[in-house]
């Protein structure tokens, strides 16, 4: 039994040489395939490193300032509301928004003067006012002319 174990220890198995040959052959095949695909023009390493020529064109965004609205809150408290806003539009509709600004101001003033004075003290009133003013603006200008309404100042005086 000692002779059998001595023979196994002396002769290294031949399978380990085949196992070492498989990764070398795989690397050679992959390198050859990469060279062949580059040589045939299927792809180019220089094209992968080159900067992209096409950059997305961003739409032009224009902010039209709504004149400051200051109105007395009914109820005899002597408080007044000051509201300043901007309308987000694009360059093609800027002239239309500026031209129809008196109608927008009229709709804003009509809505703000009709709000109950107790509603100003409630939570979330600013979001409701913003949504209502945006709806009234879209009613005057149409759906595509105005993208958003930004309230830049909302205070009581």
Q: Can you describe this structure?
A:
With 157 residues, the chain is α+β, with helices and mostly antiparallel strands. The protein has six helices and three strands. The chain has a three-stranded antiparallel sheet. β1 and β2 form a beta hairpin. α5 runs antiparallel to α6. The longest helix is centred in the N-terminal third of the chain and has 25 residues. The model has no long low-confidence stretch (mean pLDDT 85).
Attribute tags:
157 residues, alpha+beta, 3-stranded antiparallel sheet, 6 helices, 3 strands, 20% strand
Short description:
With 157 residues, the chain is α+β, with helices and mostly antiparallel strands.
Strand order of the largest sheet: 1-2-3
Order of helices and strands: HHHEEHHHE
Number of β-strand runs: 3
Q: Oligomeric form of this entry?
A: single chain
What is the helix content? Answer: 40-55%
**Structural class, judged by helices and strands?**
alpha+beta
**What's the main sheet like?**
3 strands, antiparallel
Q: Mean pLDDT across all residues, rounded?
A: 85
Beta fraction:
15-25%
State the helix count.
6
Model regions low in confidence, pLDDT < 50 over at least 5 residues: none
Straight-line N-to-C gap: 106 Å
Radius of gyration: 37 Å
Q: What general form does the structure show?
A: elongated
């Amino acid at each position: 039994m000692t002779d059998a174990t001595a023979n196994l220890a002396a002769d290294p198995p031949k399978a380990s040489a085949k196992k070492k040959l498989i990764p070398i052959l795989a690397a050679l095949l992959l390198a050859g395939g990469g060279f062949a695909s580059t040589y045939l023009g299927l792809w180019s390493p220089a094209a992968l490193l080159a900067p992209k020529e096409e950059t997305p064109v961003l739409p032009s965004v224009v902010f039209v300032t709504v004149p400051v609205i200051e109105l007395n809150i009914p109820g005899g408290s002597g408080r007044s509301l000051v509201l300043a806003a901007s309308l987000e539009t694009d360059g093609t509709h800027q002239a239309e928004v500026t031209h129809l600004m008196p109608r927008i101001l009229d709709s804003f003033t009509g809505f703000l003067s009709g709000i109950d004075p107790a509603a100003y003290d409630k939570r979330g009133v600013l979001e409701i006012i913003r949504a209502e003013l945006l709806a009234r603006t879209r009613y005057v200008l149409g759906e595509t002319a105005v993208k958003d309404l930004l309230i830049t100042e909302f205070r009581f005086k």
